[in-house]
Every structure is written in structure tokens, then in C-alpha cells.
């Protein structure tokens, strides 16, 4: 995934940072962001599942460091957020702990907790856990409020009586909870004197797949003035750094769709863009993130080369013929679809990214309804009831086919995978994984094929 990329007088900073103005109630909590401040948090989560011999546990520890870099002209504040994540799993009495993973993201956050989306926080490191949305006024603070954390998750907050500070509880309404029979609740304690969340307690359940219960805590460890020299370095260097990371990831994307003869050159160009940043950054957090990315490069390159090789075996070649049935027993043959653009979406219930992509596939089916385009869900669940459950809950508007054994024919190894087949029966393109622009990306290809016919 790619990432895109004035000091003001102190009185302006204090106003933006959430100190009550004459027009707003002092009881409405606001984050007190001040450039030059450094916050540290610690999060620990665990999920216990199964019984007896199938019992297990997995979890994560996260150390957060947040630097407030500057106020933005729109009233938000640029935050640089460092996460050190350590994952573990316990099964059959044995604990397996993975090496700590270091990641750096940026976020533009308003004093009321609104967060502007950017590529670095779309899939990891979202700061909503430590900077949840706050009520917009005293009325919401008294009765509750809601917001969209993601394109498929709604959070409902309600105030909780407390002896001191401001406490509120959030419950999650999401596609994930619907499909996996889950629930998620968090209780936040906001410290009005500090102007930040000081503690979070979470509980979760899941009734499908890994059936069990989870708990978690987040604690504010400290708020202090950052080293002023390092603060100036970070403010001066973070913009260019994230632009370089975005350029690197764009080259990686290009390598994934390059031909076998070009993929190595694309990867070399990607690494060159990343290494060129090394001399330009001096802040320790930026240096550490760059080192982590370069350390992962060998594995990234291996994966990219393998993916490009699999793609080359399929794209531009006649699609593998198939003869299968939909869930109602109706036969569907690829040969009978000649003259149409065919879109195959390979999925199964246990694939969270598959579920997340489905509203976009539904949108594609709607976009090309009545045109020579056939959209099919290609389900690989062993139990038909799992497929039917998802179809009903997601309101899928396109047919779902039984696809056991078909992923191998098309070289599918990751889910979701979308395969676009042209009117002559050749594979036009493959899209692996979730992307927020999936509907638009595939839609453009379909339109081009229809115009080309």
C-alpha cells in the first residue's frame, strides 16, 4: 500500500488544542495537542479460544510513542506515531513469540478526535485506539454519539458515570462482528487535566472459527516535552520521509504486475528510492523505521517475484475452463459465458478481507447490471451453510458458485482474489487482496473491455 504526502503563535495553539472557548461548554472533552509534546502508551490484548486439547491463546503487546509535530491550517495536528508490536500465540502449553515489529505512521487528528485518512493508517497503526472520537458538544457528551471508524465499522459511544474525569463506553457495529458472531466493547477514561485518554479496557467475543473471549488494556504512561533538537529534526524530515516511503511502495506495486523479466529491475528501483532517503533523515524514529523496512526487503522481494511469476502464468492466457454449480444446483460453464466480461471473486467465510471487499463487489454487479458482464462469487467453504450465511447477511446481488478445486486452476493462493476474463475467454487481469479502490479499479477495466469489443 502506498502513502501520500507555520508554526503559529502560542495563543492559537492553545485554542486549537482544545481549551474551552467562550462558545463551548467546558465539560466537553478535547485533546490538548501541543507541538513538541511526546506521549507514551502501552497496550496489551489477549484472546482465549477453544477447550481442552483445542484450547489456545493469542495476543499482542504494543508500545506507542506519539510526537505532536505541528498544527495544520485546517485545525488538525500532525502526529507521528511509532508502534512496537509483539505478537504471541500459546497452543498445547507452548508459547511462540514473534520478533517485535516496528512501524511508523503519521496521522492528522483534530482536537475532537476526527482523523483524516491516509495510506499509512489504513491497514495498521490506526490511532483511533488511543484518540477515539469525542462528543461534538455538551448534548452529545450527555446522551452519546456515533462515528464511522472505517468504511465498514460504526462505533456507538455512551457516557458512563464516574467519580472523576470523563468516561464513556463504545460498542462496535461491523461486518466482522456480523459474520463472525462477534462483539467488541471498550471503556475509555479521559483525563481532562491532561487532555488525553488515560486508560482503556476492552472486551470481545467471537462465535465462529476461533470461538472465545478477549480482553485488553491500554494505559497512558506519560506526557512530556520532547527533546527540542529531535523535535525540530522530526518536523523538518517527516514530510519527505513519508513521501519517499510512498514512492517505494508505488514501485513495489508496479513490480507486482511487471513481467518476469522486469520484476527484478522494478524491485531494484524500489530499494534505491528507499535507500536514497537514508542520507536525508537523521531523526532516530525515522532511521529505525527505514532500517525495519530494509530488513524486510529480502522477504518482500521473494514474495513479489513469486507473485509476479504466478501472475505471468495466467494473465494473457486462455482462462481455465470450469463446469460447476451455484448453490441452488444450477450448472455454470465458462464456455457458455463467451462474449461477456467475467469477474470471479474467490472467497470463504473465514477470510476477513474477503468480507470487507464484498460491498465493493456488490457495487460492481450493480454498476454493470444489464450489460454483458457476469460477476460470480467463487466460494471455497467446506460447509455450504457458511456460504449461505454470508450471502444472506451481506445481501450479495450476484450468484455464488461452488469453487472447490478451482483456485488451483487459476493459481490463486491469497484471498480474496478477483480474476477478470475478457469476452474471448482470456484472463485480462488479477487483483489479489483488499483495496479501498477495488470497485473503481476493476470497473475501469471492465469499461475498457466493453468499449474495446
TrEMBL record:
Pfam family, one: Redoxin
Name this polypeptide is given: Thiol:disulfide oxidoreductase related to ResA
Keyword Hydrolase: no
Domain of life: Bacteria
Signal peptide bounds: 1-22
GO BP, sorted A to Z: cytochrome complex assembly
Keywords: Cytochrome c-type biogenesis, Disulfide bond, Redox-active center, Signal
GO cellular component, one term: cell envelope
Gene Ontology MF terms in the entry: oxidoreductase activity
Subcellular location: Cell envelope
Domain Thioredoxin: start-end pairs: 313-451
UniProt cross-references to InterPro entries, sorted A to Z: Redoxin, Thioredoxin-like_sf, Thioredoxin_domain, Thioredoxin_ResA/DsbE_sf
Amino acid at each position: 500500500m502506498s502513502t501520500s504526502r507555520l508554526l503559529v503563535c502560542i495563543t492559537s495553539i492553545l485554542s486549537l488544542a482544545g481549551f474551552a472557548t467562550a462558545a463551548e461548554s467546558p465539560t466537553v472533552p478535547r485533546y490538548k495537542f501541543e507541538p513538541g509534546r511526546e506521549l507514551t502508551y502501552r497496550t496489551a490484548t489477549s484472546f482465549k479460544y477453544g477447550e481442552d486439547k483445542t484450547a489456545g491463546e493469542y495476543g499482542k503487546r504494543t508500545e506507542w510513542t506519539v510526537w505532536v509535530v505541528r498544527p495544520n491550517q485546517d485545525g488538525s495536528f500532525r502526529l507521528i506515531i511509532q508502534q512496537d508490536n509483539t505478537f504471541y500465540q500459546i497452543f498445547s502449553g507452548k508459547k511462540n513469540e514473534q520478533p517485535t515489529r516496528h512501524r511508523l505512521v503519521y496521522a492528522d487528528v483534530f482536537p475532537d478526535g476526527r482523523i483524516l485518512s491516509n495510506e499509512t493508517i489504513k491497514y495498521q497503526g490506526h490511532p483511533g485506539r488511543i484518540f477515539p472520537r469525542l462528543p461534538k458538544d455538551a448534548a452529545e457528551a450527555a446522551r452519546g454519539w456515533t462515528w464511522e471508524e472505517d468504511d465498514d465499522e460504526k462505533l456507538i459511544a455512551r457516557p458512563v458515570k464516574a467519580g472523576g474525569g470523563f468516561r464513556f463506553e463504545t460498542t462496535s457495529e461491523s461486518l466482522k462482528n456480523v459474520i463472525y458472531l462477534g462483539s467488541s466493547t471498550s471503556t475509555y477514561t479521559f483525563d481532562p487535566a491532561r487532555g488525553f485518554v488515560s486508560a482503556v479496557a476492552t472486551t470481545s467475543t467471537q462465535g465462529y472459527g476461533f470461538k472465545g473471549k478477549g480482553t485488553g488494556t491500554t494505559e497512558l504512561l506519560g506526557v512530556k516535552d520532547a527533546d527540542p533538537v529531535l523535535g525540530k529534526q522530526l518536523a523538518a524530515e517527516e514530510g519527505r520521509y513519508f513521501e519517499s516511503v510512498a514512492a517505494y511502495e508505488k514501485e513495489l506495486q508496479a513490480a507486482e504486475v511487471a513481467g518476469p523479466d522486469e520484476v527484478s529491475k522494478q524491485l531494484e528501483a524500489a530499494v534505491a528510492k528507499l535507500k536514497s532517503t537514508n542520507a536525508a533523515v537523521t531523526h532516530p524514529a525515522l532511521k529505525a523505521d527505514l532500517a525495519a523496512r530494509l530488513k524486510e526487503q529480502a522477504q518482500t522481494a521473494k514474495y513479489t517475484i513469486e507473485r509476479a511469476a504466478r501472475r505471468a502464468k495466467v494473465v494473457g492466457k486462455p482462462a481455465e475452463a470450469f463446469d460447476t454449480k451455484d448453490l441452488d444446483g444450477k450448472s455454470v460453464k465458462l464456455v457458455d459465458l463467451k462474449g461477456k466480461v467475467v469477474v470471479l471473486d474467490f472467497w470463504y467465510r473465514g477470510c476477513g478481507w474477503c468480507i470487507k471487499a464484498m460491498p465493493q463487489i456488490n457495487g460492481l454487479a450493480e454498476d454493470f447490471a444489464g450489460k454483458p458482464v457476469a460477476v460470480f462469487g467463487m466460494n471455497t467453504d467446506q460447509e455450504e451453510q457458511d456460504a449461505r450465511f454470508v450471502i444472506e447477511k451481506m445481501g450479495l446481488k450476484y450468484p455464488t458458485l461452488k469453487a472447490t478445486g478451482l483456485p488451483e486452476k487459476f493459481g490463486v493462493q491469497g484471498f480474496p482474489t478477483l480474476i477478470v476474463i475478457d469476452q474471448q475467454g482470456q484472463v485480462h487481469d488479477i487483483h489479489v487482496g483488499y483495496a479501498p479502490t477495488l470497485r473503481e479499479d476493476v470497473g475501469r477495466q471492465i469499461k475498457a473491455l466493453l468499449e474495446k469489443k
